[in-house]
Amino acid sequence: MALRARALYDFNSENPGEISVKEHEIVSIYSEQDIEGWLEGINCRGERGLIPASYVQILRGNEPAFLNSCVAPENCYPAAPPRYANVPSSSYDCSSFRSPQPDSLQPLVQIAASSNLSYSAPPLLHSSLQPGQPQTTGQGGSDDDWDDDWDDSSTVADEPGVLLGSGMEFESSGASRYRMSTRSDASSVSRLSTGGQQAGKGSGTVGRNLNRFSTFVKSGGEAFILGEAAGFVKDGDKICVVMGKYGPEWQENPYPFSCSIDDPTKQTKFKGMKSYISYKLLPTSTNIQVNRRYKHFDWLYARLVEKFPVISVPHIPEKQATGRFEEDFIAKRRKGLVWWMNHMTSHPVLAQCDVFRHFLTCIDEKGWKQGKRKAEKDDMVGANFFLTISIPPNMLDLQEVESKVDGFKTFTKKMDDSVLQLNNTVIEFARKQVAGFKKEYQKVGHSFKYLGQAFEMDQQAFSTGLNHAIAFTAEAYDNIGEYFAEQPKQDVDPIVDLLALYQGHLTNFPDIIHVQKGALTKVKESKRHVEEGKMENNQADGIRERCDIISFATLAEIQHFHQIRVRDFKGQMQHFLQQQIFFFQKVTQKLEEALHKYDDA
Questions:
Q1: Strand partners, 232
Q2: What does pTM read for this prediction?
């Protein structure tokens, strides 16, 4: 039975899994037995999560609540509106990597988190959150639903136990393949073909985060930093970070390509009982057309988000339950998918990953099912993903890294605000063009027409030319009104599509930054333990080396974001201004035609 408690102070949540409360707010608590100083409860907005035990007072019996924030809205934080329409809804579960949902919280009694130096992983982590184990999402679509609806659910067989543990044997088929591990009981790198070994570094004395729902934990970043990742890395799976002109950056794709998305057509199955839209994809790398539906894009997006915790996977256009077959919606979704595909093929890492190539090249149902199963059982996700990253030999200056990441965090916040403002402004501008400007110009045209009709009552021959000129002027203004109504499709709509894509990117980066910040925190903690004599230097060095991997990857992703941002906004602003010039030239031409009619009047 839930207990009531009153908040004694304001508490602002700083990490996923925590909830904010206001002083005097009444919250529901599941148990008054705290776990390491935290209680699990629900605030007045229905958000479920962790609250500091010292910040609330349990209400006993008939003790008055004084202020019940559930009926006093001024004591609550305003609920955040659904800000970005292009963020996919939860038909698949990628919460373990991006945005933990309050409903996914497990009872705290199951989590034996400890802040002492000799931490033992709780049973929950050994069973279902073991680093390197494939995460099932519940959305992937069953193997038999090649033609099924995009919102159909399916299951994928779970892989129990610990994958690729230290006691697991592996026989190489001859291809270059490495067993990578950051565990203290396993070698750091051992090439299977030679048997060479290198001593690993442990980190058993660095404590775990108390909040097991933070992005740093869910992404596998903590497990990697603490030396718990282990898996086999093929040469083809390696992701390289190199030092470029402006700092760390992803190694360029040696075989760049693009992919067009055209001809969305409505198709049916089950004798017309179910309908869907099919898109024709044509990658330049193969020049072989494949047909894909929105559900396939949705499945791919879920796989990419799961696999790449420090890469900003572009969001696909939003789902829509009704009106999916309306022409305007189909055209708008196709344009959104074109932008999405452009960012996918432009990313040096995403463009080369196996699951994306499978998506672009598979042409038969059997091959799709096989590739789908392989992607959903990928071992190199979460903590193991970081094993695939190869970085330059030079170490990073952590203070400089922290400064760059903080600067980028400030930049994204400012860009987020400006993108939202620009989006609202141009949408309002387009609305005025479609409705207001069109109406006003046509109203002027109708007035000229009415004047011309009055003049036509005069049967004098010398007034005929003037009457015709006024009638043409009226028609010209009516046409100009139509020009205004059609113009947003040429200049404003492309900007709105671009802003929607970048709004998705900007919602990704707080989680990416959180992973990097968590790694830096562990480095600082390990340094403190070395100074106190609680940790060996080689253990601290191992944590520092793994932090460098996350930092190199984060800086490379930031650099890539800036590069495509400059490319996209430069091109889009040029297009916008060109279309504006063409528009006003067309208006000017129409007015000049009307003017010349008066020369012979």
A1: 179
A2: 0.67
